[in-house]
């Protein structure tokens, strides 16, 4: 019996539902079958709900797939960075990117995370409330600029954060439209997008120029590493390629962490028992003394993060497109078939997670006894294109949560509802204003 099921609703209805509310659409598809055919005609499109098929697509048959539509859209901004590079080019780029996340560098980054979070703490002490997603966006932008580019963007962080936000919003809008218009066409969206790219490139090329003229301060950064890197042809990589990697880091390296921290503070405000245990753990540790050595000891905090990644995965949707005919677990799919893996929906499947709508960090405790099939939980993707910075992301999120949580509690303003906004990364729709209260 085939594990591919056809959805009963029409092609037009599926498209309208997807455009109107992608999250609701994928939750509706969750129990339609292991692989759900959307009956899209010439170029078949499928929703993948089974961990077995996720493993086939991301790992076992990885060579048969490309990123497809997301690749085309992201290339408008990143060009040929690690997120968009293909096949051997991606393999080469990943090999020279890897040392950025070696232990000795992470130790260096940890101190910067502490320093920048302390600066935010000083600012929040003067505030009764804040738009927490804005604060996190600016904090993680400052962190990524310091640790990867050795530059302080304090004076321009709002401008740069807005440019990143504009880029991501325009990318998401393009991703959901039937036709991708060239950037040269002067639509309102394209003009906003190009202006945002210009703002980011102004900072990026300025950093590259400074690093060439005075390399010493950049030795422990991504820029310094890339300036010492040679291409697959044996020549130094170009400024344009360094630009692509820096743009990749700006878009993928701070937006995702900011959104995750925002969602976790929201979850803590709704779950006082979890928040109490969180405070008990962080109150007994001095992260400023040795942040890298101590962050991994915060086991319950990391359970909270894993549960945050389950319920609110920043990478909420994974696209793949088959480059030729491919067989997956006995099912044959034609060339050009598109597969959509919605981690947000999969992580809420009661077949794999008990009470999936409950924020329960204990499900990730070693002694919990709750087992999840491989590839039922994929917050960082899987296979050759899994997130290369996952260890940095876990460290950064742990330190930010612990340092802010040690000083403050964040509670919800009178907000009628808090909804996900599924752009390139999973944001809080319309922002999240929270009360800031200093802990006694």
Automatic annotation (TrEMBL):
Residues the entry annotates as binding heme: 387
Domain of life (superkingdom): Bacteria
Cell inner membrane listed as a keyword: no
UniProt keyword list: Heme, Iron, Metal-binding, Monooxygenase, Oxidoreductase
RNA-binding listed as a keyword: no
InterPro entries: Cyt_P450, Cyt_P450_CS, Cyt_P450_E_grp-I, Cyt_P450_sf, Cytochrome_P450_Monoox
GO molecular function: heme binding; iron ion binding; monooxygenase activity; oxidoreductase activity, acting on paired donors, with incorporation or reduction of molecular oxygen
The protein's required cofactors: heme
Family: Belongs to the cytochrome P450 family.
Protein name: Pyridine nucleotide-disulfide oxidoreductase
Organism expressing this protein natively: Bacillus weihaiensis
């Amino acid at each position: 019996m085939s594990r591919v099921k056809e959805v009963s609703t029409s092609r037009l209805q599926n498209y309208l539902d997807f455009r109107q509310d992608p999250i609701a659409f994928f939750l509706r598809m969750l129990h339609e079958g292991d692989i759900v055919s959307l009956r899209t005609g010439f170029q078949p499109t499928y929703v993948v709900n089974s961990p077995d098929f996720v493993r086939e697509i991301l790992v076992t048959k990885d060579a048969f797939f490309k990123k497809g539509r997301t690749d085309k859209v992201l290339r408008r901004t990143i060009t040929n960075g690690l997120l968009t590079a293909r096949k051997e080019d991606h393999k080469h780029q990943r090999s020279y990117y890897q040392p950025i996340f070696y232990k000795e560098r992470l130790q260096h980054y940890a101190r910067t995370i502490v320093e920048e979070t302390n600066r935010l703490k000083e600012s929040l002490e003067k505030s009764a409330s804040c738009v927490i997603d804005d604060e996190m966006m600016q904090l993680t932008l400052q962190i990524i600029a310091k640790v990867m580019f050795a530059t302080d963007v304090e004076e321009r962080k709002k401008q740069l954060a807005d440019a990143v936000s504009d880029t991501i919003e325009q990318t998401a809008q393009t991703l959901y439209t039937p036709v991708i218009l060239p950037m040269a066409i002067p639509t309102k969206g394209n003009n906003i997008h190009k202006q945002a790219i210009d703002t980011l490139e102004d900072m990026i090329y300025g950093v590259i120029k400074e690093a060439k003229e005075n390399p010493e301060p950049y030795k422990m950064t991504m820029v310094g590493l890339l300036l010492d890197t040679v291409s697959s042809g044996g020549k130094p990589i170009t400024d344009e390629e360094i630009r692509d990697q820096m743009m990749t880091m700006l878009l993928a390296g701070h937006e995702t962490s900011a959104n995750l921290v925002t969602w976790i503070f929201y979850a803590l405000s709704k779950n006082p028992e979890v928040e109490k245990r969180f405070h008990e753990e962080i109150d007994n540790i001095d992260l400023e003394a040795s942040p890298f050595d101590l962050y991994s000891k915060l086991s319950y905090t990391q359970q909270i993060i894993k549960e945050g990644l389950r319920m609110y995965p920043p990478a909420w949707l994974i696209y793949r497109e088959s480059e030729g005919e491919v067989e997956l677990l006995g099912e044959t799919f034609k060339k050009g078939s598109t597969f959509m893996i919605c981690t947000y929906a999969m992580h809420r499947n009661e077949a794999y997670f008990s009470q999936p709508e409950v924020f329960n960090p204990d499900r990730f405790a070693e002694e919990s006894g709750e087992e999840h099939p491989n590839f039922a939980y994929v917050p960082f993707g899987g296979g050759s294109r899994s997130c290369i910075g996952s260890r940095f992301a876990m460290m950064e999120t742990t330190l930010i949560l612990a340092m802010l949580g040690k000083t403050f509690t964040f509670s919800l303003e009178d907000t009628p509802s808090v909804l996900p906004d599924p752009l390139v990364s999973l944001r809080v729709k319309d922002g999240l204003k929270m009360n800031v209260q200093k802990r006694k």
